[in-house]
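step=encode ok
step=design start
structure_in=
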């Protein structure tokens, strides 16, 4: 793996070798091992392995744990659990959508093969079309079987799920197409690596309508501040005249118990855009997100504000 100083937005994760579930499984426990968080590992007891396969893109495993229910692991990294998935899914979807001053009609999801983000977007009644580009068809298949409360999003008639490369999909879509794009990616290793690089962000900018918004998985302030800083710097360059912000949420089974979101808005001729206040009422049925949590998500600790100073929109 490259050292943290070598990992940049132009080539994050360079040299990283994806792991497998078996590498972290020993004596009935799974430990999430990765050089992206050296010297630490979250360990969960494996009550039963429910599913294990190797897709064309990654190692896929689902196991059962008495504390967190079913656990999805891709390339040796925990992606979601029954117990805490909603804190991530609700935030990555509602932080951008509830910041919009108008009702979104057409939204794109990149990744998100477990269906959780799609479920949250489908709560918004104004949305007419939800396109989704997921590179690995094994993930939706697995989620439908073992995570039905997340995969329920795929049943919405507005959802068009396409098993395809997200970057290729964006490059082929028409300019000014979407009100919002949500990128639910894994870490910048293996198939998700391109989702942290400049060509991908440039393609998203082109595909957005003026004033449209992007929300991407933004890693942990505690573990990846240098990578976050480089991505923020790149976003400010790509979204010239627009808005770039960073927010975060808590989630017990992600490394450090926290995960962030890079939020960008395409420039528009209207008034300056701000993510920091909710402009639309949240949909019904949420368990984590509300207007107060929205505002609090942008209150960064001092060390993060200092590192990101000059790269985020004030």
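sequence_out=
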């Amino acid at each position: 793996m490259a050292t943290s100083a070598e990992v940049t937005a132009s080539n994050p994760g360079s040299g990283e070798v994806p792991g497998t579930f078996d590498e972290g499984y020993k004596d009935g426990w799974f430990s999430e091992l990765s050089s992206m968080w050296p010297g630490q590992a979250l360990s969960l007891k494996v009550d039963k392995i429910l599913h294990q396969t190797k897709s064309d893109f990654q190692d896929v495993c689902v196991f059962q744990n008495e504390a967190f229910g079913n656990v999805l692991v891709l390339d040796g990294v925990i992606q979601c659990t029954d117990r805490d998935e909603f804190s991530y899914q609700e935030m990555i979807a509602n932080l951008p959508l509830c910041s919009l001053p108008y009702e979104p009609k057409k939204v794109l999801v990149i990744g998100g093969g477990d269906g959780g983000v799609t479920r949250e977007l489908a709560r918004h009644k104004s949305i007419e079309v939800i396109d989704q580009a997921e590179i690995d068809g094994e993930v939706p298949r697995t989620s439908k079987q073992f995570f039905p409360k997340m995969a329920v999003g795929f049943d919405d008639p507005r959802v068009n799920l396409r098993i395809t490369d997200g970057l290729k999909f964006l490059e082929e879509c028409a300019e000014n197409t979407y009100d919002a794009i949500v990128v639910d990616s894994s870490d910048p290793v293996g198939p998700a690596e391109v989702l942290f690089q400049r060509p991908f962000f440039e393609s998203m900018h082109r595909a957005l309508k003026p004033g449209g918004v992007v929300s991407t998985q933004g890693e942990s302030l505690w573990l990846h501040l240098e990578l976050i800083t480089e991505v923020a710097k790149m976003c400010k360059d790509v979204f010239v005249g627009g808005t770039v912000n960073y927010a975060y949420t808590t989630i017990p089974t992600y490394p450090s118990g926290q995960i962030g979101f890079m939020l960008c808005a395409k420039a528009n001729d209207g008034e300056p855009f701000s993510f920091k206040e909710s402009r639309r009422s949240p949909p019904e049925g949420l368990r984590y997100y509300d207007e107060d949590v929205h505002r609090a998500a942008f209150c960064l600790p001092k060390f993060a504000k200092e590192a990101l100073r000059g790269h985020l929109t004030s």
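step=design ok
step=annotate ok -> The chain has two domains: 21-81, 85-308.
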